[in-house]
Design brief:
The protein contains 17 helices and ten strands. By secondary structure, the chain is α+β, with helices and mostly antiparallel strands. Strands 3-8-10-9 form a four-stranded antiparallel beta sheet. A four-stranded antiparallel beta sheet has the order 5-6-4-7. Strands 1-2 form a two-stranded antiparallel ribbon. The protein is globular, with a radius of gyration of 25 Å. It binds nicotinamide-adenine-dinucleotide.
């Protein structure tokens, strides 16, 4: 019988049974089944409560970036990422930033936006009517989350926009919510749902969507650093970095890669601390394109002393309560290593890491050519894929780099030779 992905009631089965079904479907070996079942630092019971249809867990490397001095305070940065050289690069750049006092940050506070989409509005004064009822809307919203209000958060303001869409004009209400230490999506969505009938009532329109916006442009972090020119490798390297930034400022093809480098750092911390990293990435890219042109999230310039000055500004919707932050035991440990007490402090650290990561990438590109470092790591990956044992992996890397033949077939050949 042909295999089908239609498995009624899959979600109701225990983890073990689900795994059995998948093993049959994909011809998994006993060894593979055991590996999926193996509980690391996230046990299956918790995993099964976090998402649906769980059949196992998957571990990622958890590294620590060192050398971070942010607002005069020392931080060790937990990073979870699959890409080699990110953690080393962050540590290296953080060391450079120490030359003139590290990285300094600020932020706007944890303000998120919820959107309520209103269509079929006949009343030309709908926008005005919503704004006239601002206090009532805020009151209804805040009744949904007394805990948040108790901590000083909650709905604070209402804004209304009329937009032209391919389906005609729409009246979009923005609920402005201080979410304190939460990422805020659930909190804001609940509020939007609660105020929707009231908005329909006062305008005679019909509400469709009621959901948070990931363009969190009222929840911005800013980071700034001055790096001594000698620490980056001299004034020529400073010029190279500024020129690399200018390239990104002028060209979206480059800006996308420039921002990807920033996100290497930001998302690694997001994963370690159990954040919704898609929300951060969506916000980052939308903010980068806010002027209508996709721009880099950082700027790099040279000051009158010839030193390098870098700044970053981006949305950072992160939480230390809610979501997976409290559920995943390792995320809790990551937060403890960081020693953060508020979501805002975490957001600012992540901005600082993004800035340092960007510095590392630009310096590598501008100064050394990123190829050399990468090639070595690539050679290492190939050697390990080809079955190199820890005793021989360095020797194989050396040979492949020397021969400039960093290819899987060569790695295989060398592994065979060494293990003969
Ligand atoms: P949550 O609802 O689990 O936790 C937030 C709640 O915790 C608050 O509403 C409040 O009642 C309570 N709380 C206790 N102490 C608090 C404090 N000090 N500060 C603030 N709140 C405190 O989580 P959330 O942050 O509202 O939502 C995050 C989740 O929503 C994530 O899992 C995310 O993946 C998911 N999500 C995201 C999107 C999106 O980004 N578009 C959409 C839907 C859901």
């Amino acid at each position: 019988m042909a295999k089908s992905s239609r498995i009624p009631g899959f979600y109701k089965l225990p983890v073990e049974e689900r795994l059995k079904k998948v093993a049959e479907f994909a011809n998994l070996t006993e060894e593979e089944i055991e590996l999926l079942k193996k509980e690391g630092n996230l046990n299956l019971e918790i995993a099964d409560r976090m998402i649906e249809n769980v059949i196992g867990t998957m571990a990622y490397p958890f590294g620590i970036a060192t050398n971070f001095l942010i607002n005069g305070k020392e931080y060790l940065i937990p990073m979870v990422i699959e890409e080699p050289s990110v953690v080393a690069a962050a540590s290296n750049a953080a060391k450079m930033t120490r030359s003139k006092g590290g990285i300094h940050t600020s932020s706007t506070g944890p303000i998120m936006i919820g959107q309520i989409q209103l269509v079929d509005v006949k009343d030309p004064y709908a926008q005005k009517r919503i704004l006239e009822e601002k206090e009532e809307i805020i009151k209804i919203a805040n009744e949904q989350d007394p805990v948040l209000v108790k901590f000083g958060g909650g709905a604070k303001d209402v804004e209304v926009r009329v937009i032209d869409s391919p389906k005609g004009p729409m009246v979009i209400t923005h609920l402005i919510v201080d979410v304190r230490d939460a990422m805020g999506a659930n909190a804001v969505n609940t509020m939007c749902e609660a105020v929707a009938p009231f908005i329909e009532g006062i305008t005679g329109g019909r509400v469709y969507l009621r959901i948070i916006s990931n363009l969190a442009d009222k929840r911005l972090v800013r980071a700034r650093t001055v790096v001594d020119k000698e620490a980056v490798g001299g004034e020529e390297v400073v010029d190279g970095i500024v020129s690399a930034w200018a390239f990104a400022a002028a060209d979206p093809y480059r800006a996308a890669t420039h921002n990807k480098g920033i996100l290497n750092g930001v998302i690694a911390v997001a994963l370690a601390t159990g954040q919704d990293h898609r929300a951060i990435e969506a916000g980052a890219h939308a903010y980068a394109a806010k002027t209508g042109k996709y721009m880099p999230l950082t700027t790099w310039e040279k000051n009158e002393d010839g030193d390098l000055v870098g700044t970053l500004e981006m949305p950072m919707a992160v939480g230390i309560v809610g979501g997976a932050t409290k559920v995943h035991p390792v995320a809790r440990i990551a937060l403890k290593i960081l020693g953060v007490k508020t979501a805002t402090e975490l957001a600012e650290i992540m901005g600082a890491v993004g800035l340092a990561q960007n510095l590392a990438a630009l310096r590598a590109l501008a100064a050394e050519g990123i190829q050399y470092g990468h090639m070595r790591l690539h050679a290492r990956n190939l050697a390990m894929m080809a079955g190199a044992t820890p005793e021989i992996v360095d020797k194989i890397v050396e040979i492949m780099v020397r021969e400039r033949k960093i290819r899987y077939d060569r790695a295989e050949e060398l592994v065979k030779q060494f293990l003969k």
